[in-house]
What we know:
11 helices, about 375 residues, single chain, elongated
Amino acid sequence: MPVINSIAAMADDLKTWRRHLHTIPELEFDCHQTAAFVVARLRDFGISAIHEGIATTGVVAIIDSGRPGPTIGLRADMDALPMQEVTGVDYASTIPGRMHACGHDGHTTMLLGAAKYLSETKNFSGRVALLFQPAEEEGGGAEVMVREGVMDRFGITRVFGLHNVPGAPFGQIFTRPGPIMAAVDTFDIRLTGRGGHGAYPQDCLDPIPPALAIAQAMSTIVSRNHRPSDELVISVTQIHAGSASNIIPEEAMVNGTVRTFDPDVQDMVERRIGEIVAGTAAAYGVEAVLSYERGYPATVNDAEQVAFAADVARGVMGAEHVVADAGAEMGAEDFAYMLQERPGAYVFLGTGAGAGLHHPAFDFNDDIAPMGASYLAKLVETAQPA
């Protein structure tokens, strides 16, 4: 696998950077230490066009080749998760209740590796915009960066991102044209009845039976209201009610998530949940309030850019390690907002065996960093040859 030699020589530095970032996980938009570390490294590389404070703690750095040409964008996310780490490694999180359980420390490191190489060689035309983004896990940092004008401000013509995948073959790149990750919506249903003694249900309006009926009825949206060929997930993830065995509660709550790729399916699901909630509440004589929130949209790859990215990946990883027609994933990703603004491609990078994403024992595989950094660098050199 032809990793760029000078990036392979950075392996120890990449590991050091990544493990330092792993010790200082930060949440949402509050990535101040992470951003400061990124900026310090960029300055060490001799990059001077550094723009801070975008989406609170986001950083955009520009490497100008000195030759005319377009600007290509490369994005890495920086934030961590509110979880307690159990890896036991000597570089574990130093902040209780926070950890890099999704590998964003590795994503940031790989983009730093590509930045160091590109700033030294400048073997491309035009410019590259390095997009270090906060708040991917929660808050939609990509949407905020787009709203603050990064695409137009820096003249970005196309944009690329990647995500590590533990459990997938080491060094495998897999992607697909069109939708690759789902839109994510959240529903919250509050049911209000009339509480009382558990021995006298006739004097109460119990909100628990309608809560259960709503949860069961929502499964029919998947089985009876949409085509089986359309990807759709509706998961009830929380039902809360009551405080003791002899009390009929006043209130109950049903909460969950919806994953779709097609906006028409998304509209149908929201409408049907509303109908089910209203009808069930009327049938049981309780009050019900539905809050339905649309989150990140589907992540939709541009077909031409996917073909380009896959070809670049074949040159780095080898053709046998690239899958350009992978299945779509039901997870969500706010890189979707950048792809709504500019054509581009999002790819997954297999990191071999290890605990899964969002698991308290997860740890990014440092051995993959030179490969990921080489892929990012080669995107630039291939898209905009000197």
